Amino acid sequence: MKKLLVLILILWSFSIKAQTNVYHSFPDSAVWRVDYHSFNPFSFGFNIKYYFHYYITGDTIINSSLHKKIFKSYTKVDVIAWNLPTNPPVSTEPAYAGALRDDSVANKTFFVFPNTTIDSLLFDYNLVMGDTLKGIHSFYNLVISSVDSVLINGQYRTRWNFDTITELGISYYPFIIEGIGSSAGIMEPLYYYPIDFTRRYLVCIKDNNATLFTSDYNSSYGCNLIYEGINEINSFSKPKIYPNPFTESTTIEFEYQNSENYSLEIFNNLGQKVRRIENIRTNKIKIERGNFSSGIYFFQLKNDCGNWQTGKLVVE
Questions:
Q1: So what's the architecture of 240-315 in CATH?
Q2: All structural domains of the chain with their residue ranges
């Protein structure tokens, strides 16, 4: 019996090693949920939280090599405190964030930042315990303290853990996981707080709506995608949607004020805007399915007074 248990353990360890020795590329439909927390407790201090996600949208050729195009979603900004003489940060529109390239031969991942054509090293998967971080930046020369594996979608992927950082009573546990990203996100510096008073956190990574990995960081928005970074203060009554789910068309009925002009925006499950309707001056909006594929969509209804409301559409 003991020999059988030993044999099982040996076979299991070989299985894990075989899986971690295989190069795991980033999923073609990857979505990364990321939070930033900017906190300066000193004079002219500030306390701000940012919520957004990255998503892959197709491929591009750069320097004769295939890259995955990555966009950043709307950024939701929560200004908790702002004591500077300038205006506080505001929400930003979706934008191109760069292009990612997996190199299974070199066992590395490269990244081309906007307005450049240079392949910058992002992740080096050849590192072993005791090596110093290569690729993504960090204020400190982070050293690998341990190497283990994480079960993701039925396969084990290698995780490189770096020395714990503790500043102002907050501990940060930096890591890199092959084909997933880092504890800070995807192309973010692993730790830059002494430079910009900002800590960056990977919340989760998804692929085709399936959550592949969730970090230990507790985000106010969880693993939910960020569809628009607006000020969530003013809103009107929640609209009615019928039918929902729908196959051909549906109607959104809402509380309409004659003196106000409304607009409607619809987003897919990656946070990409897929339709916009402007100059709405009635309390009912008929939505035709058109080219919408089956799935979940989100909408945001706004008026010119800054009031808004959101909802979900299900297309069968």
A1: Sandwich (2.60)
A2: 30-214, 240-315
Query: Which residue bears the tokens 């996981």?
Result: 177
Q: 312 is written with which tokens?
A: 């979900």
Q: Are the CB atoms for 205 and 212 separated by under 8 Å?
A: yes
Give Cα 298 distance to the centre of its chain.
17
Q: Of 13-22, 94-103, 120-129, 192-201, which gets the smallest average pLDDT?
A: 13-22
Coil, helix or strand for 20? helix
Q: What is the mean pLDDT of residues 180-196?
A: 96
**Once rounded to an integer, what is the mean pLDDT over residues 266-282?**
84
Res. 59: pLDDT tops 70: yes
Around Cβ 218, how many Cβ atoms within 10 Å?
9
At residue 7, does pLDDT exceed 50? no
Q: Do 50 and 74 form a contact (C-beta atoms < 8 A)?
A: no
168 dihedral zone (left: phi>0; alpha: psi -120 to 50; beta): left
User: Which pLDDT does position 2 carry in this prediction?
Assistant: 52
| Tokens 């979940």, located at residue | 296
CA 14, chain centre distance (Å): 33
Q: Residue 239's pLDDT is what? A: 85
Question: Can you tell me the mean pLDDT for 102-110?
Answer: 97
pLDDT at position 11 is 42
pTM score: 0.73
